[in-house]
Amino acid sequence: MEYCLLSPIRLIPTEEVNHDRVDALEAQILRAGRWTAPITIEKDALFVMDGHHRLTVALRLRLAAVPVVLLDYDSVQVEGWRPGQTITPAAIFAMARSDRKFPYKTTRHIFERGLPRCDVPLALLHNPAPVPVTSACVAEVFR
Hints:
143 residues, alpha+beta, Conserved hypothetical protein from pyrococcus furiosus pfu- 392566-001, ParB domain, 4-stranded mixed β-sheet, two-stranded antiparallel sheet, 8 strands, 31% helix, globular
């Protein structure tokens, strides 16, 4: 599993964010000058699975690209954060297609195979140069 670079304006958030957490994450990313965790995306619809706060930071910083991992719900388990709450991929798709968002900390995605790390300088994300991409990313990058 590898990451590729996509424009953050193409990604579709499905959940609200905590703005204090966004502020703290933005400060952390700016201090480091690097992006170290890819955003996980549903590969066909480009819905954000995990990384809503990072997406908000990317949009604030007006990044041209962000590292993403393209996945589908066949390889990801989803559940609700709150006891007794049932969240399904179908509910996530329906919410995203309605242009509404779940409240903060509604969906919890579990990645059984783990996720890759990344270490990308912010300068590259402001002005991405052509980079080699995996076959999994080629179709998406050039779509």
